[in-house]
Every structure is written in structure tokens, then in C-alpha cells.
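Hi P.,

Sorry for the delay on this. The queue was packed all week, but I finally got your sequence through. Input first:
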Amino acid sequence: MEKKLKQRPINLIKVVLFGPESTGKTTLSIELARHYHTVWVPEYAREYLQNKWNNEGKICEKKDIIPIGSGQITLENNLARKANKVLICDTDLLETKVYSEEYYDGFVDPKLNEAALNNTYNMYFLTYIDTPWEADDLRDKPEQRIEMFTAFENALIKHKRPYVLLKGNKKTRLKTAIKVIDKLVANKQKLYSYSNTLIDWDMHFLHQKNP
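Then the structure:
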């Protein structure tokens, strides 16, 4: 697997907000990160494609898929080292794979496909389309929301990914997600915490200073 598309090993609970555009993934990512006093990984494709639109007036092309995937995993790997037991991911490479398949007649770059199927997460939260559509420079196909949702759910089922469907208002979704994550955390030992790393470093520094 391409190294630039591969996760670095780290003992965290990793969850993914997964689903079509304008279904509340970013809002929930922020709320979950706040609840768990941790960090969240934004969707790199939005920054990448917004810059492309602003500078070139162009939308996503096949050649953009690998740079988007690489940028996403770089963000995830870097932010994982600043997490507190839980890492909230606004997207992952499986989502990039679904978009590639839907927009390019089933095409997926083999390197992206391999990475999408090999990188692992503890849980996916599939966000339903019962949220208002909010248009912007990048979002399209508002008339195909159910078709896109079905494509995302089918990908989770096909590749045997653990997932929970999130429906309802923000409060309901947040409550459901927290209940699931709390169980995951309770069942895993010695989870990485950036704050503990800082404490260990401070103790090491004090020991070196006062042997």
C-alpha cells in the first residue's frame, strides 16, 4: 500500500462521520471533539477543491483523487498525535472511494482502493439525509440525495464496516454517538492521550534537569 495513504499505528478509538454532502457531519464532528476534549480531522477535499475552484474555476477531476486521499491521511496522522483517546474523523478514504465511483462511472485508483480497504476505524456513523440541503460552491446533486445515501450505506455493508445510522436533530445524533463511543472507550485499555504524552515529557525533562 502507498505509504502516503497509510495510517500510522496509534492506540486510539477512531470514528468516522460518513455519508453524503450536507448531512451534518462537520457539525457533529466539532460537537463530539468538544465533548471528548479531543481533536477532529476535517475533510481535506473541501479545502483542496475550494482552492481549485477559486484559482482555476474547475471542479474535481480524476487526477485530484490521489492528492485528496494523501492530504486526508496526512491530516489524520498528524492530528492523531494530538488526540485524547478518541479521534473524530469528518471523513475517510472509503468515502473518497465512494465519491470516485459515483462521479467517474465506477473508477477508483487502485492505490486509493487498497488504502481505503486496509485502513481501519472502530466505528462509522452514517449520517442520514433528514437535514436541510445547504448549497455552496462544491456541493451538487441535491436531487440525488437518496441515491448517494444508498451508495454510502452499501459501501459499509459490502466492506463489512461497523456502523450506526444517525437520524434526527443535532441533539439526538450527538446523544446516540456519545453512547456508542463511550462503550468503545470502556472496552479498550491504555488509549493514547496527548496530555499524558506532555506529562511524560515534562517528567523526563525534570528528571534530566534534577538527576
